[in-house]
Amino acid sequence: MTILVTGGAGYIGSHTCVELLNEGYEIVVVDNFSNSSPESLKRVSEITGRTFKSYDVDLLNKKDLDTVFFENHIEAVIHFAGLKAVGESVAEPLWYYKNNVIGTVNLCEIMEKYQVKNLVFSSSATVYGAANVPIPEDAKLAAANPYGRTKHIIEEVLLDLHHSDPEWSIAILRYFNPIGAHQSGHIGEDPTGVPNNLLPYISQVAAGKLERLNVFGNDYPTKDGTGVRDYIHVVDLAAGHLRALQKVQSSSSICTYNLGTGKGYSVIDMVEAFEKSSGQTIPYSILERRPGDVPICFADVSKARDELGWTAKRGIEKMCEDTWRWQQNNPNGYEETSSIPDGTRTPVLSQAKAFFMPLSEG
Q1: The organism sits in which domain of life (predicted)?
Q2: Each residue's pLDDT tens digit, 177-233
Q3: Is residue 362 domain-resident?
Q4: Is residue 361 one of the residues assigned to a domain?
């Protein structure tokens, strides 16, 4: 069974590729590498001992996307590809709507052409806005930024698609704050420039790449005054995608699931956990609150537990430990050469040209 993974070279996508390959699936990856590196796919191959095809293709290019389906017998799609920086979406909303929404419509049109109607969609908890916690899937949706609204719009498109043709089987996954890395330290989160997310920022402070952490607000109604979020280990999140894939393959429906731990941790909780895991001191400064931040946000994960048989297994200590291992092993992210003995790198070929990720020789 061959699964197409769009955005498979990205942070969550690469970890999901590892889980798919380890479970015996065949995969094809599509990525335009605008916010990821082909090096991550080489390392997926090294971790799993498996080869697979990858295409340098943008979802806005329907002709090249069609070629991927024509050349492969794809049976289901896990769709990660999309722009994801909240601040950037505020500055460049049209770019986000074009890339995320139109890209997804293009994908669905090509899927329909080839009668591939099983889809797992990577959505986000940003669709909720300020909701009462723990947040259930039927909470009112109120995305507060263009990025979140693109996810909400895509969810509505997929609902309409299923209602027009019940053969479409779709799982919409809303996840909260993915952190951590593969336990090998070989793949992890590789942000471009200064990290937007908390744990990559903390890890770079611990490594001495950044001077200190800025904590935005310490007067929230929480135990230490800092914001509380639901952090989930990326490997647990990847496992949730496999359970969702099994769900869409076994029934024709459209379902939405929260993927999180169902627990909230404050910024200070995360700082202290990382200091314990790394043995490093994390200096931080308290700044004013950021507009739009909510005090507390964590998931009701009972639906995923009951219907998918999935729960998160890794706690914040493991999340911090694996993040620190990734940071130490890859101080410059994927910019460094692979661990393949001869240090060679697989070049990205031209659009719509497939290349196989090579196995490690050692």
Answers
A1: Bacteria
A2: 999 999 999 999 999 888 888 999 999 999 999 999 999 999 999 999 999 999 999
A3: no
A4: no
